[in-house]
């Protein structure tokens, strides 16, 4: 379990009396984050950001999360085997987009393998696989080789046809829609990258926008959709644990939008 204890208050939709009595948990997609959350890091790690909004909050978070350790692209393979381990099978990882549990040993580039998906596509800012944005674990996830190929460098938006073996993900000519259980994860990873990489460290200034077909520009859309996904799919226990492992073991920085999903609205 994560070292931090999160005290979250979520508004739930259509919660029946019987569901309350038996302690049922509604799927995350039916919940939206409350106006504020509290974490044990607020008085330490986030102390210079708490209480701020807009550009001031974004700037403070950039300073906080830019203090990090970096790993090589080759080292990402083994890191993902830890950060994305299947909680029900320690021999497997959970794949982004499809939700499939697959053997850790099947990492590679062949059909049936999993590879390293850059959620913020490498071409959107032309950072490739260099140490920095190209190796940042907060947006790198294991994904099925073929599903990853379908996503390619597409922007994120709603709509399209079903992706084969994509777990409910959809795709069209200019955008990719993850399955419902990964929508919030994708939004928070993209917005982390936008705060962490602002052009001040030799890399492109990454920003979300309201467009698709962004090509090689350092932008990914659509921001309004990403904001909706953040609200519809709050951070899961898996996502929170992943954030903690990256903080404790690898980069020693956090994705603030996992700890404080309401900061998405506070900035954008």
UniProtKB/TrEMBL annotation:
Bias type Gly residues, positions: 158-169
Location of the region described as Disordered in the Swiss-Prot/TrEMBL record: 157-179
Coiled coil segments of this chain: none
Pfam families to which the protein is assigned, alphabetical: Endonuclease_1 (PF04231)
Record's keyword terms, sorted: Hydrolase, Nuclease, Signal
Keyword presence, Signal: yes
MF terms (GO), sorted A to Z: hydrolase activity; nuclease activity
Protein name: Ribonuclease
Species the sequence originates in: Streptomyces fagopyri
């Amino acid at each position: 379990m994560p070292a931090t204890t999160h005290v979250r208050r979520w508004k739930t939709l259509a919660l029946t009396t019987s569901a309350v009595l038996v302690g049922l948990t509604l799927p995350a997609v039916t919940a939206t984050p409350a106006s504020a959350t509290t974490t044990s890091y607020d008085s330490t790690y986030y102390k210079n950001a708490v209480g701020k909004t807009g550009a001031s909050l974004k700037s403070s978070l950039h300073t906080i999360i830019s203090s990090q350790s970096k790993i090589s692209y080759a080292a990402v393979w083994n890191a993902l085997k830890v950060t994305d381990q299947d909680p029900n099978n320690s021999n497997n990882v959970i794949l982004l987009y499809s939700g499939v549990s697959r053997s850790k040993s099947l990492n590679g580039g062949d059909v049936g393998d999993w590879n390293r998906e850059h959620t913020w596509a490498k071409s959107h800012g032309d950072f490739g696989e260099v140490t920095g944005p190209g190796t940042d674990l907060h947006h790198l996830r294991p994904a099925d080789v073929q599903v990853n190929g379908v996503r390619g460098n597409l922007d994120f938006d709603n709509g399209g046809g079903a992706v084969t073996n994509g777990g409910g993900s959809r795709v069209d000519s200019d955008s990719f829609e993850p399955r419902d259980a990964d929508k919030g994860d994708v939004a928070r990873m993209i917005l982390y990258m936008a705060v962490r990489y602002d052009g001040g460290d030799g890399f492109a200034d990454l920003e979300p926008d309201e467009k698709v077909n962004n090509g090689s520009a350092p932008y990914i859309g659509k921001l309004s959709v990403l904001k909706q996904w953040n609200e519809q799919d709050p951070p899961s226990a898996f996502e929170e644990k992943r954030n903690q492992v990256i903080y404790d073991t690898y980069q020693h920085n956090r994705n603030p939008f996992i700890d404080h999903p309401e900061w998405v609205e506070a900035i954008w």
